[in-house]
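Convert to structure. Protein one:
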Amino acid sequence: MSVDTVSLTGWGRTAPTTAVRFRPRGYEEAAAVVRGRGPRGVIARGLGRSPGDAAQNAGGSVLDLSGLARIGGVDAAAGVVRCDAGVSLERLLRVLLPLGWLPPVLPGTGRVTVGGAIGSDLPGLDHRRAGSFARHVSALELLTADGEVRTVLPGTALFDATAGGLGLTGVVLGATLRLRRVSTGLMSVSTERAGDLDDLLARFTAGGDRLPYASAWVDLTARGRATGRGILTRGEHATPDMRPAHAGRTRLSQRSGAAPGRSLLPGLPPLPGGLLRPAAAALCNEVRYRGSPRSRSGELRPVPAFFHASDALPDVRPLYGRGGLVRYRFTVGYGQEETLHRVVRRIAARRSPAVRAVLQRFGAADPGLLSFAAPGWSLELDLPASLPGLGRFLDGVDEEVAAAGGRVCLAQDSRMRPETAAAMYPRLAEFRELRARLDPAGAFRSDLSRRLGL
């Protein structure tokens, strides 16, 4: 096991803190770290894709599980896989797709570990049908505060606290997942432009769930009659009769574009103020909107290109400047569309340089005590952390979201106040009580848990 002292941030590169990082090679080495933890506790970390501080632990220990990445076995007949928590969804997809299976839930990036997907209870593009990630976990191996590894099953209090529990109930070491059967490695995709937010919401709901996967890019720089305009993308798994005659059943595509993770500005460190300015962001969004088809259906794309298209793009983080980026994701219920309208108008009126904004629909709430997804609309956007007054502005948005009965995503948060989190998550007291009972000494801690009093 390797050990070093490092400064860590989330993917958004905000608020770095220093911790001792352990990289175990097996379960017993991970258990030894938990048993020998110091007074600041320990938190698990995967590939570092959480934008905020959920996988940081200032002055304490961080358990880097990226080396625990074995895929123990795939039951292709039953559609079940057993794997370590450090396996990425990207790798799992590469292994499963040729066998005619998919991971149960696929978010917008494959660079998330199975443990991270459980700890944040990730929703995918078809949440209305499939729910979030942990709903498809048959069992998980959890390293608890006493240094023991327990098998935890769905329907138990510990499972519900661990699903979306941000690593604060223990270290997920492995899991058994139920898979999704597919007959080809292709998606049939439809794309359409919407002229404003009302049009976009109407297009989302018009087709029902005939095409189960759906998300929209929203232009948050457009104002006036075009406020909230966007591009809706929907998809379904292609059947063999949709496949071109020359296409293999499950052949994965060769991704185009820059190498994954490469900077958009090679050799250039993050700039003091970044390059994102309101005028530049508005121009980028205008080009993207005008360059998209008004309406197109039946386009065939390889599965990885549909779900994880952003992973093939250059790293845009240097554009946000040395301060990094703040990812803000919230959900409000159906019937609260006016709140969504107000938030979009506020962002547009502020001329915030937002080039990434994703809108989704959620279905039934998941059983995790701190799971994010609930029936309604979810909007996710990135903003430069150095924007003047950004903290006060987002505090105001928090208040609007909370007043509408909505919530902000804890797994992506880097700045919310503890009283706001308590107002948004009605089962937080239940989560705290279970944690206090199972881990009275506070073995598992993170910068986020201290900041929000989780």
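Protein two, convert as well:
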Amino acid sequence: MREVVIAYDLGTGGIKSSVVSADGEILCSAFVSYQTYYSAGGWQEQAPEEWWDALIESTHRLLNKKEVPPESIRAVAISGHSLGVVPIGRDGTLLRKKTPIWSDMRAADEAEEFFRQVDYQEWYEATGNGFPSACYPLFKIVWYKRHEPEVYEKIHKVIGTKDYCNFRLTGRLCTDYSYASGSGAFSLSTWQYREDYMKMAGISPTVFPEIIPSDGIVGEITREASEATGLPVGVKMVCGGVDNSCMALGAKGTAEGRMYTSLGSSAWIALVSTHPVLDFTYKPYVFAHVIRGMYASATCIFSAGLSQQWVRNTFCADLVEQEKQGKANAYEVINRLVESSVPGANGILFNPSMAGGSMMEPTPRMAGAFFGLKLEHTRADVLRAVQEGIAMNLRIALDVLCKYRKGTERMLVVGGGAKSPVWMQIFANVYHLPIETTSVNQEAASLGAAALALNGIGLWKGYEAIDRIHRLEQTFLPQEEVCRIYQLAQKRFGQLVNYIAEMNN
């Protein structure tokens, strides 16, 4: 009987559950979505019980497949979206039906007060926490204390997204180093919590859970969890990791200096190394890697695929309607239109900061913009400008990281955007690097979680197998004449970014 593990990719939009063989092949997958709730003051919340329900449903879908006999499952592991703030009482009860997700900004005042006592640069360089500070759990817990004291007084532990599911599967409250590194109170140098930061914030030093290795065994599937999910009692639960670090592992981030671009709803470039990349000007965000002693440092933009989605819905409603009628996928038609335009989009520039600016941008109050529109421009020019603008924004992110990693020879791209050949060619010319896409594509986080499970139970001895699992599909080489066009466009793009920042500050 073929031994398998189940990898769960607990993302912002839903959970993808995958059965993965011992040789790293993804045999089948199931996806179940859940909701994000938006309310006053920038709140963005999800319901932990909905994560659990989605995990149950997706697991049942997998186990209903003939190729997945339950007795073949050796272990499970979860990659979870970051900066979760799930309050658990001493009796194990969930204290809040909905909890803030990473992008929730309610704790801005609490963060500001903390930095009246603690130097912000010193905190950033200790933690590597380069998202807007209000995103981090340390400050959201202070928000609980101030605004919901009846909840705070009952808190035993505050845990992350995947750690809540681990708790429901095994009954154990713990986390791993990668997830703990996004707490707002974790030292990248000692790989331990900073109790002084917790005391300065006014919260208990015991509020965060114990930390174990990402491929450490949390426990076994309990009888109660087995009855809910269909997973056999006794299957090993491996701790798993934060999504950024699981994806880094699954994207061949197993050795010093490796880089990749993730091109999804948001997008980032990550560098795996034995030292964190800390730059107070651009503030790369750093997570402890799921491989002990390494780090995943990244610079990001918030609206990559989201900008693509916006332009599809806004300018291409006819293509969306045709897709609904069973005709070509709207994005495939968009890619053909992009290809029909020319490099430089006939002079149009697009800034993709439609969800605000990331920490590497001049201000969080950045906005999206088209520049250079003329009456002779076509829809194809506008669509090409969007893809080029996203690539040029990420080129800025690449240049930040390349200050700390010289001689990058090629770039692996993973995520949904990697499916577009015309976009990958744009990236090759904007980055001035060969771009590689592989068979792993959108499965990098799932592969990372599966690798942790396989290593945790001894079916693997390290992570060298990941390189072999990636089968090269396409390489896109820079075209020198086009690269020169984009070098000029990149300068104009930088001027546009600075102008937008000035207008919105």
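The mean pLDDT is 95. The two ends are 62 Å apart (CA to CA).
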